[in-house]
Amino acid sequence: MIRVRGRVRSLGLPIAWGAAAVAYKLLCPLARETGLPARIVTSAVFFAVGTALILHVRHSLMRELRQLRRVAGAAQRALLRPPPSRIEGLDVAAAQVSAERGAAVGGDLYEVVATEYGVRAVMGDVRGHGIGAFGTVAAVLGCFREAAHDERDLDGVLRRLDRALARHLRQEHPAGAAEEFVTLLLVEIRPDGEMLTLNCGHPWPYLLSRGRVEQLAPGDPQPPLGLFPLPPVLPTVGLGRLEPDDALFLFTDGAQDARDARGRFFPLGSALTSVAGDGPLSSQGVVGRISASLLHHTRGEPPDDIALLVLTNSGGMPSGARGTARSTTTCPQSTTHL
């Protein structure tokens, strides 16, 4: 009833203007005259009515658009909520940029939770972007927030996510025609700083350490979730240790695939090297500088959704010898500052 009354009130002004125009045409003697002055007056009347109607419609549409953006923003904050700034000795910061202009939601996802097994983080990228990917993001994140606490191993967490995604896709596409998938990176940081991961088609993270930047690449990832069944055995992969003052940088492929007006890819490795060489690392500082550089590179219009997540060992986790069972690609040093 309230919505109906609101609609009636919103139509009151257009109806009044329309009634005035009709009354002028039917009742005013000047409107029936054919001389030039009469035609000018009549045209002015109908022009004023038309302009008023257009402005009223525009105002109504803008008001509804602002309301939709507020609702979308609230949904975004409830689902892809900002991570805590500090969790179990780690400084945490994240950022997300939607590829759809004016959109508050996108197809990227991330979350960090403290569990009895260590700090667990997820970074994912749903096929597609914007509003259309929001349902899949909700299904994956909702499952992760439960499974991260319930499952002892990352293997169990990933299998729960795979089942949740399969259920969601069956509900959304009962005919089975859609080819939906999610790239996903699961990371577990244990209390001693040891890092374990499972990767399903996602870019490997970077390790920022004492002015150096390494892209951790311990092996070939599994296929993205939703394309093929998971194998019977899913061994976790070691990424070494996150030492004090080290930062782990997780991202979606929108960051490394972003292009400028001349078609050049964003130099993510060089940008991180520049950030790491400028002094002590902070999660918020890394996220802020890389986000600003990405927006500058793409002129504020990235072609794909972008998500960034940084976990920095601020000294609250014990140090230890670095792990040796990892393969890394070292980014060349760069003197270019952002």
Tell me about this structure.
The chain is an alpha+beta fold and 338 residues long. Helices cover 41% and strands 21% of the residues. The protein has helices spanning 2-27, 29-32, 36-79, 134-150, 154-172, 253-256, 268-276, 283-297, and strands at residues 86-87, 90-97, 108-115, 118-126, 182-189, 194-200, 206-209, 212-216, 237-241, 247-251, 306-313, 328-330. The protein has 2 domains: 2-73; 82-330, 4-Layer Sandwich (Phosphatase 2c, domain 1), CATH 3.60.40. The protein has a 7-stranded antiparallel beta sheet. Strands 3-4-5-6-9 form a 5-stranded antiparallel beta sheet, covered by helices on one side. It has 8 helices and 12 strands. The protein is elongated.
Q: Tell me about the biggest sheet?
A: 7 strands, antiparallel
The global form is: elongated
Beta fraction = 15-25%
Q: Which architecture of the largest domain would the CATH scheme give at its second level?
A: 4-Layer Sandwich
- CATH names the topology of the largest domain as Phosphatase 2c, domain 1
Number of domains: 2
CATH class of the largest domain: Alpha Beta
Alpha-carbon Rg, integer: 27 Å
Element order: H for helix, E for strand: HHHEEEEHHEEEEEEHHHEE
How many extended strands?
12
CA(first)-CA(last) distance: 56 Å
Stretches where pLDDT is under 50 for at least 5 consecutive residues are: 320-338
Could you name the CATH homologous superfamily of the largest domain? PPM-type phosphatase domain
Biggest sheet: strands side by side, in what order? Answer: 1-2-11-10-7-8-12
Look at the structure and give the mean pLDDT. 79
Helix and strand content put the structural class at alpha+beta
